[in-house]
Amino acid sequence: SAVISQKPSRDICQRGTSLTIQCQVDSQVTMMFWYRQQPGQSLTLIATANQGSEATYESGFVIDKFPISRPNLTFSTLTVSNMSPEDSSIYLCSVLAFTGRSEKLFFGSGTQLSVL
Amino acid sequence: GDSVTQMEGPVTLSEEAFLTINCTYTATGYPSLFWYVQYPGEGLQLLLKATKADDKGSNKGFEATYRKETTSFHLEKGSVQVSDSAVYFCAAYSGGYQKVTFGIGTKLQVIP
């Protein structure tokens, strides 16, 4: 299994500011993802964090708004830039770990973001 | 890409009732299938999984069988408890797309 430490666990931010969320994994993993879970909604994939190259963003998400870094196989950051109240959500780091011939997706505890 | 269709909630059951939460998927090839659970105020936890047709995943009294012919992975439990109250997410992973697709989540409320 993979243990994921995500921080901050929650924050309250002002409109127009930026917040960087950190994700640390206790083992080297190839696949790291950032998800958003809006209140009462399912998980929406923001992007795949690629080690050593630019992240791969899903439709509706852009690098200017959600810049992602992945300097190595155990760490990634997601920045929510120029925030607005619509960005209020839970942001989740996850990793895909392969165990034997199967895979499992593990999640961090999430960052609950409120934008005023 | 893949898609996962999950029954909408909320589902309200009395304790010891039988639970079924439907989930179907659309994918090219044969994805791995998962059920995740999110208890109130907590993060997502993997509940069970199945990686190929006819596999049955089970955990904590919950079961789901990978049905290729109906592209389904319905979650079942014979006797629910109040502590099972949570949101349940069905998910699919295809190696080709290298990402996990989630259903909308089904909120289960079990009343004593």
End-to-end Cα distance of chain B, whole Å, is: 41 Å
Which chains share the greatest interface? A-B, 20 and 20 residues
Q: How confident overall, as mean pLDDT of chain A?
A: 91
Most strands sheet of chain B = 6 strands, mixed
Oligomer designation: heterodimer
Given helix and strand content, the structural type of chain B is mainly beta
Number of strands of chain B: 12
Which stretches of chain B of 5+ consecutive residues score pLDDT under 50? none
* Alpha-carbon Rg of chain A, integer: 14 Å
- The dominant shape of chain A is globular
Range of strand content of chain A: over 45%
Q: What's the order of the H and E elements of chain B?
A: EEEEEEEEEEEE
Give a description of the structure.
The complex is a heterodimer of chains A (116) and B (112). With 116 residues, chain A is an all-beta fold. In chain A, 32% of the residues are buried. Chain A is globular, with a radius of gyration of 14 Å. In chain A, strands 2, 4, 5, 6, 9, 10 and 11 form a seven-stranded mixed β-sheet that branches. A four-stranded antiparallel β-sheet of chain A has the order 1-3-8-7, with no helix packed on it. Chain A has strands at 4-7, 10-13, 19-25, 31-37, 43-49, 56-57, 68-72, 75-80, 89-99, 102-107, 111-115. In chain B, the strands form three sheets. In chain B, strands 2, 5, 6, 10, 11 and 12 form a six-stranded mixed β-sheet that branches. A four-stranded antiparallel β-sheet of chain B has the order 3-9-8-7, with no helix packed on it. Chain B starts with a strand and ends with a strand. Chain B has 112 residues and is an all-beta fold. The mean pLDDT of chain B is 92. Chain B has strands at residues 3-6, 11-14, 19-21, 23-26, 32-38, 44-50, 56-59, 62-65, 75-77, 86-94, 99-102, 106-111. The chains are: A mainly beta (116), B mainly beta (112). The A-B interface holds A 31, 33, 41-43, 45, 48, 92, 94, 96, 101-110 and B 32, 34, 42-46, 49, 51, 89, 91, 93, 98-105.
